[in-house]
Amino acid sequence: MIRSSFQFSDRSDAGRQLAASLADLDLIHPVIYALPRGGVPVALEIARALHAPLDLILVRKIGVPGAPEVALGAIVDGASPATVINEDIRRLIGADDIYLERAKLRELAELERRRTLYLGNRAPVDPTGHTAIIVDDGLATGATAKAALIAAKTRGAVKVILAIPVAPEETLAEMRQHADVVVCLLPSKNFQGVGSFYQDFHQLTDEETIGLLRQGWAEFDQAATSPMKRQVSVPPLGLLGDLSVPADPRGIILFAHGSGSSRLSPRNTAVADRLNAEGFATLLLDLLTADEAEDRRNVFDIPLLAERLLEAAIWIGAEPDIADLPLGLFGASTGAGAAMLAAAELRDRVAAVVSRGGRPDLAGPRLAEVEAPTLFIVGGDDRQVLELNRKALAVLRCDKLLRIVPNATHLFEETGALATVTEMASVWFAHYLTLPASGRMPAPARTPPAQHIPTVAIIRAAAEPLPSLDDPDFATAFDRFANARVVLLGEASHGTSEFYRARAAITRRLIEQHGFTIVAVEADWPDAATIDRHVRRRPHQPTNSTPFSRFPTWMWRNKDVDAFVSFLRNHNATKLPNDKVGFYGLDLYNMTASIAAVLAYLDRVDPEAAAVARARYACLSPWSREPAAYGRASLTEGYALCERPVTRILVDLLQKELHYAEKDGAEFFDAMENAHLVADAERYYRAMYYGAHESWNQRDQHMFNTLQNILAWAGSRAKAVVWAHNSHVGDARFTDMGMERNELNIGQLCRQAYGEDTALIGFGTHTGTVAAASEWDAPMEIKTVRPSRSDSYEALCHEVGTDRFLLDLRAGRHDDLRRAMADPRLERYIGVVYRPETERWSHYSYASLPDQYDAFVWFDKTSAVIPLPTQVAAGEDETYPFGL
User: What is the pTM of this model?
Assistant: First the structure.
């Protein structure tokens, strides 16, 4: 037969084509159910493409008496077998209950035989909370497929999809009554049998079917248990590393090799693979650049190697999927000395250290400062190194142990020696690298369908549908929060247009109808000040760099923010100076720009004071391009290098406040806040080396203090709108952040300070696109947001079935809603870095939504922001912050 473009070469070909059509659908944790035998090779290709589990749905037809090829009904295998009867045919032929019962028992026996034959002891995949995709190689009457669809929906699938290569059009019409979606590549008007559409349509044997199933299961099980691997680049030198993160990691081990070895060392790789299998993430890192490695002396430069480990520890603390994991150091040879020195500096940031045939003695007197439990492993025949380890062990004051591998030499090349080392290291790390248990929000048990459905119904009843964002009435629903002094508007990502547009619409309403005059955002003060001068038509102040040009540029330099800035400028055009709306930045990253702003201000008002300030700020100048390195330098020196001089500048400004403010109060206030930023940033970059939670708390405390300063400067009647990420806006006390990691945030601090005069409003989405990067400082990408997990708040909101809605979560409004949603669930947080492949660990965290927010705004499908370029056009208003 000559193959036309409308046919399939075989069932696998059909499966690959179906997979391409299914890839664009809204699939919630899909499970692929094949109708055996012919559906198995089709389903296998779909499971591979969607990275979804493969299972069978076993159906047996119940035939008409005397004409078994005619379907009276069907029975579907399961814990409670489902039976579907065509009542019209039953009435027509007069089949009685006795016939049906005997037929059911006969077919159940065959189903049991097939289940045992095909599945063995493998447990079936429960469709509850999943998208069930029913697959066959084609349909004729569709009786078995219909029964499978009904059974999948009855058993709790959130969506049921029928995927087939070919079927008669009249059969598809009936299938659409039972499936949420029907995907058929070739609907046929002149159907002449499924086999006529295939070049190869041989009858599959049981052996072939079982082989295909086992192949699919092996691939999926391996993918589910294999660690996620990626090559990374650690700043500031771009040192290359190989990061492996298993599912549900229990800690991360940073390797420190020595003696000229690299991250590709077979011995370290073997140890890392074993640690991955035990549930630990690992980072194998080249501690020297290619040029440095050519100089053999660098291998013995222990302070240099230790500095690289410190840089790697800081990088780990900023990576969302591994930042909160307890950190272990694994050193070998001279790398062991570097690991001990790094542990002395990082102190309790390191949970445990292991040295393999190492030289910990090279850390010298600083060994006594190591707090982390330390294990030395040495070969029994490596006598010189063994003696050096014994001496180093005597200096340690922490928990410590020396283990000797009998008859092993320095490299542990003897049979079984390296395996013994790996076992010792694994046990040590397993004992000391433990996630904190106190305060951890309990993972909720999976909600059974009988309870899950009422929860969705309660949410649906309380959800207030919202008009489109272009509708002027969109923001009127938020008038209820207008009496608050501070309204905080969140976002579930830093790159979603709907969140920016919604916040703009709400803020505009609060400004125009309710007297709000402050917009404070999660942006750096000096950058936001350029917008403030533009919208309030104040004199331009030249800057050394283009505002909002630091990564991530798209977060504020985008079309939605540009439109909002235009509104503010037009709104202020007719207002008196004291009634104009100001735009302020709460963040502290741009320390260099703030230093320049303080010096520029003092140059204008007090040149002598400017000279003094310039000399004091010079303390920070070596780190102007890499402020994080300042924290490392301070840690190495053992004290805060620049804390006193930068704080002194702040004190001097305060002492001269009356004199300076007489000239221009607004300019003085700007200089003061820039000086505050420098002082707080100095503390922030030092705190980075003591753990992510300490630096986080420094940052959010700064944002809150800045907000309070703005409110105090604007007057007792001033009211503010804050734009920040959900992780900053939602009260941290009711999230893993606060309960497990002792982190606070601006939302919590506002509630504690202003009580009911605070409104915390979170935002969420199910799927769509987002502007984000794969790594910090990497290029922006438009990424697809994965459909939300079935055990998340987002999944509950998606099941409501409304495109946009508002949930009022305040006490006394919908108490049944608060009770239904009170148990902690997963909530998704996407920052400027988004890694869909590790989404559970890098972007989900437990929270209690009704305690975390006063209201929650839902957009079921969202789209990425459109970034603006950074060049400035000739003739543009010099105060315009987003020159095009």
Answer: 0.69
